[in-house]
């Protein structure tokens, strides 16, 4: 096991008491909570049980409308797109729900060479991706952390014509503070890691062996990352391991802890649900499976509770569910994903981490978003303009980040339309760009029109 860990007092018993008490589910109480949430100040832990217990269709509709309004007030209609880039499925852990677990003999093991990583990147660039999250199983080749650092540098250095990946986010095993400093120095965007479950007993059952069995080391990971100077971090839980209501309260407590200690909360929160994984029986029958109805509710509650945070939805979810929760607060999605090393070039899912619910390619996802009125965005400007950490929060909390998000989304969508879109997608994208410009207030429209015009004249990577 690891040594002492910087962490925060989770206090499971206090969270349990909140869930055991009878929720105040009268309509007046619910509407008072929703009215407060529309003020963009978030919610308290004590507010959540009442929203979690909602069953009345009319009040649920009001919850969903409030979540939609808060998301649009802060981020507008843009949805950021990215792709996961799996570089290795080597792993020494025994996560019972994951195909990468060490004892799973059904899974072919592989760590990509740097040349193979570059090949995957070129494939993603040809699709039109500009942002990736680099993912590795929680064991590395003999080089150790150096392998990951080289991989990040390879991604940034790879070119397909004039195109390159503009931001690499990273999802790898927890590090000590010195390790996180080294990761910071290769200029990553956001460091992501999910606690999987914040319930200690469930965590122990689901992670019986390997370094990941140390609950506290993982729980203190984001504190160490932020102490090392990584100011954009992403947290989350794997919904289905334990009661989703407990996980939601714990996520909120984690976010509040980071905000109190470091002056900014998590840049993103991810909401993956367990999907079947080859050779991992627990994934076929999750201990606390989350229904679609409860999933919609948890997304909406998270948007109201932590309004400034980007909410990430992966391709675990089916297209129809993804469409529904876009309206409830999701602001970032993966598209055209593969969850196995080398999967983009080989189109071979035999070594995938889990099953996908959305198998559509990037072009189709972009077209679907555009046709439903959402602005597909490939923007990475905040990272490169220094709008990270507390500076990002200062813009996000009052809703001012939208002044950058929508113009940047439109310029990157215009770029995708011209360089990568099929005919139907280009038509849908350009119609959305025109309609979005027409609907903007004059000052924002003037700036956005100028940016889109620059892209049409042949400039690329135009952002503000």
Features:
464 residues, alpha/beta, TIM Barrel, 2 domains, 8-stranded parallel beta barrel, 9% strand
Explain the overall architecture.
The chain is an alpha/beta fold. It has two domains: 72-394, TIM Barrel; 400-456. It is 47% helix and 9% strand. It has 20 helices and nine strands. The chain has helices at 12-20, 27-37, 48-52, 57-75, 114-127, 145-157, 177-185, 200-206, 215-219, 221-227, 244-262, 292-305, 319-326, 343-346, 362-371, 381-385, 389-396, 402-419, 423-438, 442-456; strands at residues 78-88, 131-136, 167-171, 191-192, 233-236, 268-270, 310-313, 332-334, 375-377. The protein has an eight-stranded parallel beta barrel with strand order 1-2-3-4-5-6-7-8, surrounded by five helices. Strand 7 (310-313), helix 13 and strand 8 form a beta-alpha-beta unit. Helix 1 crosses helix 11 (244-262) and helix 2 (27-37) runs parallel beside helix 4. The model has no long low-confidence stretch (mean pLDDT 92).
